[in-house]
Write a structure and sequence with these properties.
With 242 residues, this protein is an alpha+beta fold. The chain has helices at 2-28, 38-54, 60-73, 231-236; strands spanning 76-79, 83-87, 91-94, 106-112, 119-123, 133-142, 145-151, 154-160, 169-172, 175-184, 188-196, 208-216, 222-226. The strands form 2 sheets. Strands 1, 3, 4, 6, 9, 10, 11 and 13 form an 8-stranded mixed beta sheet that branches. It has a 5-stranded antiparallel beta sheet with strand order 2-5-12-7-8, with no helix packed on it. The longest helix has 27 residues, at 2-28.
Length: 242
């Protein structure tokens, strides 16, 4: 009993001393108080989140699978999103570990396939020369529905947005669209590879790509374009082969 009483007294003294320390520090410097070890902890926390923001969700096996696919297709590999052209829906600025290809907060533009006249269009990076070119961009799909892909205003193909029942590849008139899923929550986020025939490419110029709504069972059926401007670099590395 005596030992238990001693422990209670010691705990009370420690709590009182801690409260006095906190009160004194806050009284003298209420804004950014110099608590013991607070600054080093804050700096380490900042470094941690900086590492997380730059960390890729692309597993090595997935990166190799995409790189092998690009080598098989042949031609150039170019960044598939450089800037937005137009969007009919709201911008979604969501922090998610399953939405973009990295942990950082990423804007996205949705095309709800059930709603008519929904679309998003954007410019790719510039093609190095006139030859078969594959454009890599980050996006997500969700629920039963269909969307139409257009290149420079020309309808190319219709693809399925249902993660449960979709092919890996859609092909039409020499164009090939391949989706590599990276993360699955409710939606399925990943990387699209759009291969365009050489005769549709102008050296040194970007392409205008558009996705339009076709059909869907509800508003959870969508295509979501991510504002990810280094997808090619994430897959092939800085200065990777073109």
């Amino acid at each position: 009993m005596r030992r238990r009483g001693t422990v209670k007294i010691a705990a009370g003294i420690l709590a009182g001393a801690t409260a006095l320390y906190l009160f004194t520090v806050l009284a003298f410097k209420p804004v950014r108080p110099p608590f013991l070890f607070l600054q080093p902890a804050r700096e380490e926390t900042d470094r941690f989140w900086e590492r997380m923001e730059n960390r890729s969700l692309l597993l090595g096996s997935r990166r190799r699978a995409i790189a092998e696919y690009l080598a098989e297709i042949g031609g150039a590999a170019v960044q598939g999103f450089s800037r937005l052209n137009a969007s009919t829906d709201s911008v979604y600025d969501i922090q998610s570990y399953t939405w973009p290809t990295t942990f950082r907060k990423t804007r996205s533009w949705l095309v709800r396939t059930r709603q008519s006249n929904q679309s998003v269009s954007w410019f790719t990076g510039a093609s190095p020369e006139q030859r078969t070119t594959t454009f890599l961009f980050s996006a997500a799909i969700n629920s039963i529905g269909e969307a139409e892909l257009l290149v420079v205003g020309e309808p190319i193909l219709i693809f399925n947005t249902n993660p449960e029942e979709r092919p890996k590849t859609w092909e039409e008139n020499g164009f090939v669209l391949r989706f590599f899923p990276l993360a699955r929550f409710i939606h399925e986020s990943g990387i699209f590879c759009l291969t365009v025939p050489g005769e549709k490419i102008t050296a040194g110029q970007p392409l205008l790509i558009e996705v339009r709504s076709v059909s869907g069972i509800n508003n959870h059926s969508f295509f979501a374009l991510h504002d990810q401007r280094d997808t090619r670099e994430l897959v092939l590395g800085p200065g990777g082969p073109e």
